Every structure is written in C-alpha cells, then in structure tokens.
Amino acid sequence: MVAQTKLGTFLSSWPTRLALLMIVIVIVMAVFAPWLATHDPRFLDPAVRLRGPSAAHWLGTDSYGRDLYSRIIFGSRVSLLVGSGVLAIAIVFGVLFGALAGYFRSLDSLIMRIMDGVMAIPAILLAIAMVSVSGSSLSTVIVAIAIPEIPRVTRLVRGILLSVRGEPYVEAAVTLGTSPAAILVRHMLPNTVAPLIVQGTYIFAAAVLIEAILSFLGAGIPPEVPSWGNIIADGRTYFQLLPGLVLYPGIVLSLTILTINMVGDTARDALDPKLAGRA
Amino acid sequence: MAGTSPSTEPILSVRDLRVVTASRSNPRTVVEAVTFDVMPGETLCIVGESGSGKSVTAFSVMGLLPPDALRIAGGAVTLEGRNLAEVRYGEILALRATTMSMVFQEPMTALNPVQRIGEQIGEVIRIHRDTPAAERRRMVLKMLAEVDLPDPERIYAAYPHELSGGQRQRIVIAMALILEPKLLIADEPTTALDVTTQKQILHLMRELKTRHNTAVIFITHDFGVVSEIADRILVMKDGMVVEHGTREQILTNPVAAYTRKLVASVPNLHPPGREAARNAAILQVRNMSKTYGRASLFGKTAGVAALSAIDLDVHRDEVVGIVGESGSGKSTLARCIIGLVDGWQGEVRLGGEALAPNSRQRSNAIKQRIQIVFQDPYRSLNPRRVVSASLMEGLRNFGMGEREALAKVSEVLAIVGLERDVLRRYPHQFSGGQRQRLCLARAIVMEPEILIADEAVSALDVTVQAQVLDLLDDIKRRTGVAILFITHDLRVAAQISDKIVVMQKGRIVEQGTPHQVIGAPQQDYTRELIGSAPGAGWDFKNFRAFDTAPG
Lengths: 279, 551
Hints:
The structure holds two protein chains of two kinds. In chain A, helix 2 (14-31) crosses helix 12 and helix 11 (228-235) runs antiparallel to helix 12. In chain A, 42% of the residues are buried. Chain A has a single domain (14-42, 57-275), classed as MetI-like fold (Orthogonal Bundle), CATH 1.10.3720.10. Chain A contains twelve helices and no strands. Chain A is mostly helical. By secondary structure, chain B is of the alpha/beta class. Helices cover 35% and strands 24% of the residues of chain B. Chain B is built from 19 helices and 22 strands. In chain B, strand 9 (232-237) and strand 10 (240-246) form a beta hairpin. In chain B, helix 3 crosses helix 4 (133-146). Chain A binds chain B through residues 2, 167-169, 171-180, 182, 186-187, 190, and chain B through 338-340, 359-360, 364, 367-368, 370-372, 374-376, 379-382, 384-385, 390, 393-394, 397-398, 428, 439, 442, 446.
C-alpha cells in the first residue's frame, strides 16, 4: 500500500513522465539499434562526406561519409553499457565496503581512509592513465569510471548503517540471538535500497557524461566505435561547416543526462517525504 | 482554589469550533463542537490522550494550523471581543506575543541555536514596539530575573547550547510573556523535562500567572500536572469535549465514563500492598562501573562515569523498579546487563554464571534468558517485516521449526491480548499500545528469566499505559519472570515494583520496598523526587485527595 502511494507520487508530475519517456526512447534506441539505423554506423562512404540532412542520410554524414543518424542510434548502446556497467561495479563494491565499514567498527577507519584516498584521485586523470596503460577498450573505460564512484556508495551505505545500528529493532535482534550476517541483511541493509536507487541514477548519468568526455578527449572508447563522445569529437573540426555533427549528438547526450537526473530527483522526493517540496 | 468566579468578561471564548482536514474532496473532521471560555488569571487545562484534538484546538486559537493540512470549518474564536476567524492574517501576526502567545513542548529546539538569548527575547519587543535598544535590554534583563534565572547578565549573552533544558524552557516562557499577553497557551511545556525541573517550571507558571493576571490554556496528557495547576479542566477525546468542569469536579466526581477511566488510570505515589519476593537471586550485579571515554588529542581519556559501583540483586518473580532522571545511568545499567553496551567493569551473574560483557560473546542460551522491551514502540519492530517474522525471529535463531515457532507465538499472543490474525500484518497497521504488546510477545516467547522493560510504558497514553502495566504484572504471575522495570516516573514504579532502586548520576542512591522508599525515604534526593512527582496528593483511582502522606 505504501509502495503504491510512493509510485503514485512518483508518476504524478508531467516532467517526470516526459523524463521517463525519454529514458524509454534511449533504451529502445539501444536495444533495437540494428533495426532503427538506416546505415552501418562504421561504413565509410567517401562519396558523401560532410553532407547535410537528406532523404538518404536523415541527419547528414560526417567527415568519413558515415551516416550520423545511425551513429547516434548505435552510440546509445555504448552509453547505456557504460552507465549500467559503472553502476553495477559501484553498487556491488560500494555496498560491500560500506557494509563492512558500517557494521564491523574495527574495519571502519581502515576502509574509510582507503576510500578517502580513492576519492582524492581525479576521475578523468585516472581514466586517462588506465587507458594509456592497458589500451582503450570499453571495459577499461567502465572500470576507470567506476573506481572513483565506489567511495560515494561506500560512504552512503556506511552512513545509513551507522544511523540504523542503534535502532531498537536492530538491538532487539541482537538480544534475540540473530547472527550478525542476518542482522545486516534482514534488518539493516534494506534501509539502503531507496537511497541507493537515487544515488544510482546520479552515478549512471555521471558515467554517461564522463564516457563522452573521455571519448571526446581521445582517452575513451576506440575512435572507430560510435559513441556520443566520439561522434562529437569527430565533428568538432567541422563545426562551422556542419554544426549538426556536434549539435545532434550533443542534444541527445544532454537530454539523456538531464532526464536521468530528473528521475533521480523525483525518486528522492518520492522515497524521502522529508525532502518533498524542496528544490 | 476552585475556578475563578466569572465576574469579568472572558479573555478568550471559543464557540462550536470545528476543524477539518484540508482535503477538498473528502474533508475529515478533526475537532468538533469545542466550546469554552478562559477568564483573566485562570488556568484552563485541556487534557486528552494522543489524537484527542487538544493541540489542534490550541493551534486554531493561535492561527497556527498548517494551511495545507487543516483549516477551521466553523465556529468562532473570540479574543478580547474580536472574532479571529474574521481578522486578516497580518492582524493575527500583530496579536501574537502582544495579546496571546505560546510555549511549546520541546525546549531543546524552540530556540535559535546561533543567536544569543538576549537578542532572541529582544527581537520579540523589536518586532512589535518601537522601544530603544537600551530600554529593550533593560526589559529583557528584568524578565530574565522574573523567570528566576541566575545571573541575568550572563544568560543574556549566552547561546542556547550553554543552558540546560529547564533553563531553556524558562527562556521560552520569558519570551512568551515579555510583552505581557493576556493569554498564554502552553502545549505540554513540561513533558520533556525531568520531574524536579517540571516542578520548578509549574511553580514559575503559577506565580507569573498570578502576578500578571494572565489567562493560561495548559495542554497536557498528565493528570498529575493537571491536579497541580488547573483551575478548570476540559477533557477531550477524538476531537470532542467529553467533560468540562472545575478541577475538583473532574478529579473527585467525573461524570463521563471516559473521564472516569482516564482519571482512574493515572498512577499515584501510594504503592499497593505487596509481599516482598523471597526467592533466590537470579541476577546479581556486583560493583559494575561504566565510563564513557573521550579520547583526547594526547591519547589520554577524559571519561564520563555513567555508572559507578552498582550492586543489584534481582530475584525470581520480582519487579525491580529502577527510577532516575535523565543522565542517572538507569538505561545504561540495563544495556550493560543485557550486553548492548560493553566495556564495563564488574560482574554480572545470571543464576550463578558470570556473563561476558558483550552480547556478541554470549551464547544463545544466555541471550535467551534475558530479554528487553524498549521505549519507542514505533521503532522497536522492523517496519519492513511482517509481524510473524519479527515474533518468531528469536525462536527460529535457536533452530526451532517454523510450525512449532508459530504455535508458540500464537500461544503468547493470547497472553498479551492480541488475536492470531495480527501475524499477517505489518507494524504500521498497529497503534502504539498494540505494538508494545507485540514487543512484549516477542520478548516473552523466548521464556526469559529476566525481562528488562526500558521505559516500556513511557511513550504510551495513560489508559494504554495502565493496561500494559497490568499485562506486565500478569506475565510475571504466569511465568515467574523477574522484571527490571526502568522508568523516570516514580508513580509508575510505585504501582508495579516489589523493590524500588533510585539512581542519580550513575550511582544507586537508595533501594528498598516501595513502602520504605516512598514512605520513609532516607536520602535527600529521594525526598526531592517524591516531592516533585506531580499529583502526589491525589488518589486518582479512588477520585479523592489523599489525607495521609504516601507510603
């Protein structure tokens, strides 16, 4: 009953519905890319370099004659892969470290000082370093972006566990002989689910954005793979000639980030009534 | 002593007040047909249990109803001849503090933590009057002296965190009275305070009321407080006035059945006759000390002694009431015994066997023998788990099968007075009293030898509190469990305990049977506690004043 009310609040506003629609569109783009695309995104056709939009090429072509529309469609695959990959790694390790630090007080300061250290590494520098050591590939980029996100999740989970460990129902479980692992899983960790959903949307959006930045800088996904960052990087040289090469992928990227963050904000308001109505 | 004769016009007159929820489609009535007058210099107590509408009534008068949740749907609120329902919002603002003002329950959060006391009180004057700064300062200092605060100059320059709860409530009262309003509304102003502080604040309010001829509406759930301060009493239930009369009428001859039940549920200081249990000691605490250390920069620990040299015996079939004010160490003692707090010195023996300090180091067989019920019934059950899972958790931990555990839990539910169908529900579907019964069931299904009740009835309404106390007594008789009953309320302890232990600042000050401790206290502190217990002179159960001292 409570869950339904929360879902109701969540879906009641039009901006949220539009944002969810946009996310659904991006997911459809990624899943059905081969059917939605009109051309092979990697097919070089020097005959039609740098053309404006036409019936054959809806959004025009880039400097190698590749179809921009098809490349943007396929680019969504990279973005979603990076987003979900980073999210999975950050949540799994973040919850693990956070649970250890928040429940076993002896491990707390060790884990948290390591996390402070990891947080001090600039994400983009770390990614550039890792790519230059192990070569540019999708998995390297995912790992490189995920590592600096782990401490954020760790801190969140640890903070919540510290605040609920004094709750009477947790203490009651201790006196009933419930094992530490069961207390953690049954009574404490469920409290982290709602905040993690919210934090997860921000991590996802940040990962998509950082991948685009890295690719734009040439330190991300291999250049032949169509990713939104690569497309913008390729197009920037010809921006004055054909602004669409930067604008179209840029608009899709911005809308995606914006809508994921919007969904995150509404989820936060819906899941935490105390924050409802605040900016 | 009785009501002031209505020779003058009432300051406030409320007629047929009706308050509804702000929902457009389906407004629900929260307060209905509430009618009363308050005369100058008179204290009207509005008494009721949670959800009775007593605070909503007060907030309606102040114009403080949350606009998106509640609104006045009918009736008139007339303050000095002006109907507040017809007055513009700006005018209500001008009336606040000058004509009517309010004191809230929680002194810890009622003051701005980053503003000096003097400035906060001075601000009230500045908003309403063109008083020069020097004159403002003089007025504030005079008021600080009037609420009996020592060294007004120092308090004037202090920040709220430098003051105790009682001192802060004096500041809040000073702020409310600085412009000499005709009407003061106090919403549970002493509920968050210790009894000794409560007594001082009640005394102060009585004195100020007489001196300034202020009309006071005093909202409370505690009939003890009512018996100390009320001229007239308005009893509310479910948003309606149940009964209305002078203090003597309501306390000695209540007419409505609900009022009779409410008054009769109030615990008094006179212990019922009980025979001291003479069984073998099941729990022995020897020389227990606990220091909360604070590691300083140089590795030394400047500790705070929470418990020092505690010796305590608890016998089978005995209720030991541990009484003390906040900071006395009574909860720490319970938590050390059950192992939720470790790092203590001394010895705890359960049936002769020494216990490890931390519950983690104790075997399940030991854990089973000591169980606890906490104060807050809303946080004592995991809100995400169905009740049956919570009640069976302990039994299942000990390897009992699901079917057997369920059968046992069902048996215990009958003892705590709940139906079997509660098992399929979630905690949020229950009232506070029902949840506390569930917590009791969860504890006694383990068949403990010691049951610790840590302020287990303090958060409950008085009628529910009386039921749970009866239930505890019943459980003790049926199972022979020894109960360690921790409470700040000496009256409750007097009713349920076979032995009372008085604690102060981590030490046991005095212990003995209720008759010894309350009837012939040996220590000054015990005498002070007894003297501070509100309503000590009243035998609520029998609707009369006591003619003998308690004990």
